[in-house]
Amino acid sequence: xxxxxxxxxxxxxxxxxxxxxxxxxxxxxxxxxxxxxxxxxxxxxxxxxxxxxxxxxxxxxxxxxxxxxxxxxxxxxxxxxxxxxxxxxxxxxxxxxxxxxxxxxxxxxxxxxxxxxxxxxxxxxxxxxxxxxxxxxxxxxxxxxxxxxxxxxxxxxxxxxxxxxxxxxxxxxxxxx
Length: 177
Prior knowledge:
Layout: E1 2-9, H1 16-29, E2 34-38, H2 52-59, E3 64-69, E4 72-77, H3 85-93, E5 98-102, E6 111-115, E7 135-140, E8 151-154, H4 160-171, E9 173-176
């Protein structure tokens, strides 16, 4: 079985997480096994210096440290390809029906961009960029935005999420484990 992978991209505070969560919930409603991968620009602040798990990973130089609690698991891993979203999907999320990746705008993944008109800059999508071929849709709150080369959905449309989820499912990259 292959997991489908699609990336949600956008500028800071554009609503990437909100869109990712909405799509994840829509896929879950459709009975799909959904997993997510979040790209961060800084180290996660989930582990605090001096805690036992921090000491295992940092002082003990463990290759992997799995932190377990009643509410879930957190894995700290020194994987050399930890910035390669496809390698991460293959290693940790391959049993998903669909993986929603938040970020990785320069990766060769199918992309949905979210853009809000309150942001000072326009969308990231640039038709002249060689990676532009990976964009499948732009979701925006600006009713005036149109793109000839890209499907544009507006938050004000009543069926935008349903249409976007169907498009994402069709155009997602299939990755085998």
